[in-house]
Amino acid sequence: MVIEIEFIRLAEQRRRALGLTIEQFATRVEISDRIYQYYLIGAAQPTLGTAMRIAAVLQIDLNALRDMQTPDEFGNYHKPGKEEKEEAVASLK
After folding, report:
1. Helices and strands per DSSP (H, E), number in the chain
2. pLDDT tens digits in sequence order for the chain, 93 residues long
């Protein structure tokens, strides 16, 4: 599992479940709808501050998301490759 992919996947599921349009959601998070769409296609990643606002608006526990992933023997977390990101983006559609 990769945190940034799972976070956006979870955020998109929550946004839809709450019945928010991308525009409504982006306004509440204080970002542009275009930036959120960049997150959805994997062209950009939210900053920590933006991720925290997304989590607050959607009531997502960032700590629980982090705890779902385990680091390697050096304490590093997996960084997704291009194919992995493309697969994750395709799953959002």
Report:
1. 6, 0
2. 456 777 888 889 999 999 999 999 999 999 999 999 998 888 888 888 998 999 999 998 887 776 666 667 887 766 666 777 677 667 666
